[in-house]
Specification:
By secondary structure, the protein is an alpha/beta fold. The chain is built from eleven helices and eleven strands. Keywords: Hydrolase, Manganese, Metal-binding.
Length: 305
């Protein structure tokens, strides 16, 4: 019976590539593991998979009775609805410890670094397992994505070292140029609905009993969305109602300007204003230097609840 490995809902490149890379490692170590995903592939992840000739993991949303490993999350709000009916063998992550609990001991690799694939690279090193060329390229791209090509405050020396090591294995000389190609693909909005854009990298959080949804759309130039802000807000209102949220935030992150335009709908906007020390006007505010939801948004917002 196979063990399934998957990342959070609305998966980003780290969670998809993390499932693939961890499954490969576990299979090399003698476990029968299959990478899966909880949601659709983003344009950026599609770019990475095509660039290195890899297939999309199987879409699977129910895991009752299964053995599983979790990658890139440990929050119930980002897990399958039946996760409590699964046996969690391990967690590999780089976020805060969430509210998932287990009935049995588990393997945990959780590090305060920029990307789950950096953690997995360290696991490969620990076990002495060689990383195939194309897998190394995908892991490298996942790290470049999560660290915004090293610009994110979450980026550490471990992440930059991992990228350089993986670049050598994958025979890629100019990894920053490839990273920019990847972000251009990530910025693609033509034909995308407001729901697709809002949910492209969206996560739900339970903040001390209050439901908060936070999405992030990283782009080379967010001005391309100027004519669609109204659409985004209309869809945010629907998401807020559908999920019973107190607050929904969408961060439009400009990787060149190194900041984020905050879009917010909240039952109490003063909590958001206090969190970021800004004045919200027309449900918007510019957050200079904010690139990381994990390090620059969640730690400031959660105490307000």
């Amino acid at each position: 019976m196979s063990t399934y490995i998957f990342g959070h809902t609305n998966p980003d490149s780290d969670s998809i590539i993390g499932a693939i890379s961890l499954a490969y490692l576990k299979n090399q170590l003698g476990e029968d593991c299959v990478p899966t995903r909880q949601g659709d592939i983003s344009p950026e992840t599609e770019f990475i998979l095509k660039r290195f000739g890899a297939e999309e993991p199987e879409l699977k949303t129910s895991y009752a009775g299964e053995k599983v490993y979790l990658v890139d999350f440990s929050d119930l709000a980002q897990a399958p609805k039946d996760i409590k009916e699964a046996t969690i063998l391990g967690i590999v992550d780089h976020h805060k410890l969430g509210d998932i609990t287990t009935d049995t001991p588990l393997e945990c690799w959780i590090r305060p670094i920029g990307c789950s694939n950096t953690v997995i690279k360290e696991m490969f090193d620990y076990y002495g397992v060689a990383i195939p060329k194309n897998l190394a390229g995908m892991m490298m791209c996942a790290i470049l994505s999560d660290t915004v090509i090293f610009k994110s405050p979450t980026c550490t020396k471990a992440d930059t070292k991992a990228v350089k090591d993986l670049a050598k294995i994958s025979h890629i000389d100019d990894y920053k140029a490839l990273g920019m190609e990847m972000f251009i693909a990530k910025s693609a909005i033509e034909g995308a609905s407001a729901r697709d854009l809002n949910m492209r990298d969206y996560k739900a959080f339970d903040m001390n009993g209050t439901k908060v949804g936070i999405g992030q759309l990283e782009m080379v130039d967010i001005s391309a969305l100027n004519d669609r802000i109204g659409e985004l807000f209309a869809d945010m209102k629907l998401i807020k109602q559908e999920e019973g949220l107190h607050t929904i935030i969408i961060l439009l992150t400009d990787i060149m300007k190194e900041g984020s335009q905050l879009l917010v709908l909240s039952d109490d906007v003063s909590k958001v204003e206090k969190a970021f020390n800004v004045k919200i006007q027309d449900n918007q505010a510019w957050l200079d230097g904010v690139l990381s939801r994990k390090k620059q948004v969640i730690p400031f917002l959660q105490p307000q609840f």
